[in-house]
Design a protein that fits this description.
The structure is a single chain. Helix content is about 35%, strand content about 15%. The chain has 13 helices and twelve strands. The chain has two domains: about 130 residues, NAD(P)-binding Rossmann-like Domain (Rossmann fold, 3-Layer(aba) Sandwich), CATH 3.40.50.720; about 190 residues, NAD(P)-binding Rossmann-like Domain (Rossmann fold), CATH 3.40.50. The strands form two sheets. Strands 8-7-6-9-10-11-12 form a seven-stranded parallel beta sheet, sandwiched between helices. A five-stranded parallel beta sheet has the order 2-1-3-4-5, sandwiched between helices. By secondary structure, the protein is α/β, with parallel strands linked by helices.
């Protein structure tokens, strides 16, 4: 089977090639993202492999189906960039990697929170200029603070355990499914509105759906506790960026750590250091000293990349062999 792999970087080629045992698949790597303008590249391929910022809306999927593509293999857990209803109607099967290394993302979440709260990113910049003054670097303990976990799936549960059992935080959680093990640790499940109102720190670990888009909006930021800290390693559009910027300007938010951004497509994963970035909201965010941003790298560990590659190619192998697809995305099961 010939597979077109879009949005690839050196690490994608390295780990997918290593997982391609006996060269059972013909992998064609494209650095460009899949968009309506790049669908011509799929000619001669039966499967297409995508990442988080590739476009798989109805026009793109129609072009893929016309070219003979039968399988869309996501090498990620999120699927908000895929029109599942269109895929179903066009006869394209969609599979994903539902869990690769929750430890990678959960550990990075804690790292971001600690770096932000203790101003490590600012201290690092200072000492490189031989400035060892400590003025302006006063941080806060995590111990005893109230953390709100929006989503306690595999990643959120690990973060909640670390903060509750490891750092001694009071942890509030909101999720359709209550994790009994977290409750035993002392995590308190509450309505989302209560969590957003009472938490001193909010950590986002839920999928992006129509219901969760701009979950953190102007209303939430206006009624949240003063000095709120927000960490987002999930999906950028969970936060209304314009509202966040206003809250930062008005000093109602003490700090934000972001590994994702709602308009990151076409920006993240590329070296734009010599380019002029026209996204004014992103540029404004980067001017705040209490904003710590990374470029969607929470997943980027050797263990996670190995698991992603193996699961992705395993999904494709199952499809090619006509075996049941454990990781198939079904429109009905998700939206009905």
């Amino acid at each position: 089977m010939r597979i077109a792999v879009f949005g690839t970087r050196s690490y994608d080629r390295q780990f997918l090639s290593a997982a391609n045992v006996d060269h059972r698949f013909a992998l064609d790597f494209f650095e460009t993202s899949l968009t309506a303008a790049t669908t011509t590249l799929v000619q001669g391929h039966e499967a297409v492999c995508l990442f988080v910022n590739d476009v798989a809306d109805r026009p793109v999927l129609s072009a893929l189906a016309h070219a003979g593509v039968r399988l869309l293999a996501l090498r990620c857990a999120g699927y908000n960039n895929v029109d599942l209803a269109a895929a179903r109607s066009l006869g394209i099967t969609v599979v994903r990697v539902p869990a690769y290394s929750p430890h990678a993302v959960s550990e990075f979440t804690i790292a971001l929170l600690l770096a932000l709260d203790r101003k490590i990113h600012r201290a690092w910049s200072r000492v490189r200029e031989n400035n060892f003054a400590l003025d302006g670097l006063v941080g806060r303990n995590l111990h005893g603070r109230t953390v709100g976990m929006v989503g306690t799936g595999q990643i959120g549960a690990l973060v909640a355990k670390a903060l509750c059992a490891g750092f001694g935080c009071r942890v509030l959680a909101s999720d359709p499914v209550i994790d009994a093990d977290l409750v035993k640790l002392g995590v308190d499940y509450v309505p989302r509105e209560t969590l957003l109102r009472e938490a001193e720190i909010i950590s986002l670990h839920c999928p992006l759906t129509p219901e969760t888009r701009h979950l953190i909006d102007e209303q939430v930021l206006r009624t949240a506790k003063a000095g709120l800290v927000i960490v987002n390693t999930s999906r950028g559009a969970l936060i209304d960026t314009r509202a966040l910027i206003e809250a930062l300007k008005q000093r109602r938010v003490a700090g934000v750590a972001l590994d994702v951004y709602e308009q990151e497509a076409g920006i993240f994963f590329d070296d734009l250091s010599s380019e002029i970035i026209e996204d004014d909201m992103l540029q404004r965010l980067l001017t705040f000293p209490n904003v710590l941003m990374t470029g969607h790298q929470a997943f980027l560990t050797e263990e996670a990349l190995t698991a992603i590659a193996r699961t992705t190619l395993g999904n494709i192998a199952d499809f090619a062999a006509g075996r049941p697809l454990a990781n198939q995305l079904l429109y009905e099961s998700i939206y009905n």
